[in-house]
C-alpha cells in the first residue's frame, strides 16, 4: 500500500484523478438513449488521451476474469452494478447506468465511479443513487488519522442498513497508489474500531455499491466480468480516490 510522503506526491495522484473525473463527466454529459456503451467508451478514451493518462482497465485481467477487460470504462446497466465491459448494448430512456474509470499519469493511479439515469429517471433510482452517494460521503468522512479501516466500512454499512438496500461485501474499496488495486480491501460494511490504523499519506479508493432490493447475491455474466443482482433489482455504485491527511480527507478524483 502506498503512503504518500509529500504534497507533490498527492498532486501527482490528483492529476490522474482529474483525468478520471473529466472522463466520467464527459460520459455523463454525452450519455443518451440510442447510444451504445461502446460509443461512451470512445468518449472516455478521448478524454484520457487528451490528458496524457493511461487506462488502468483496458487489458486488465484479475484472477476472477476469464479474459482481459476490453474498454477504458466499466459500464453496468440496471441490474448490473460492477465491471460491465462496454459493448454494443443500446441505452434506453430510463436506464440506470453505472460508470467506473481508472487511469494513471506518470505511474500514479486514480479510480472513481458514478451512477446516473439516462433520460427520464425513475424516482426509486434517484433514491438509490442518493443513498449510495451518502454512503460514499460517510466513508470519506471517516478517513481521518487515528481512525481504523473498520470505521470507513462501518460508516458505509450504516447508511446502507438504514436505507434497507442490498449490500455485498465481496467487492469494495481498496488501497491505490502505484497500482490500481493495492491492499487493504475495504468492505462496504463491518465493525468500527477494527483493522488498520489510518495515518496521513494513506490513499484509498472508497466505493460503496448497493442494490435497491434487500438481497446480496450476485451472478456473473457469460462475459466473465459483468456482476448483476440475482433478484434483478437495480444497482448503483459511487467511488472516489481519497488521501488521508492531517487536514482531513482529500478527494483526489475531482475536476
Structural description of this entry:
The structure is a single chain. Strand 14 and strand 15 form a beta hairpin. By secondary structure, this protein is α+β, with helices and mostly antiparallel strands. Helix content is 28%, strand content 24%. Helix 1 packs antiparallel against helix 2 and helix 3 runs antiparallel to helix 4. The strands form four sheets. The protein has a five-stranded antiparallel beta sheet with strand order 8-7-9-14-15. Strands 1, 2, 4 and 5 form a four-stranded antiparallel beta sheet that branches. A three-stranded antiparallel beta sheet has the order 3-12-11, with no helix packed on it. The protein is built from four helices and 15 strands.
End-to-end separation in angstroms reads: 25 Å
The number of helical runs is 4
Shape: globular
Q: How are the strands ordered across the major sheet?
A: 8-7-9-14-15
Biggest sheet overview: 5 strands, antiparallel
Rg for CA atoms: 17 Å
**Helicity level, as a percent range?**
25-40%
The proportion of residues in beta strands is 15-25%
Could you spell the SSE succession in H and E letters? HHEEEEEHHEEEEEEEEEE
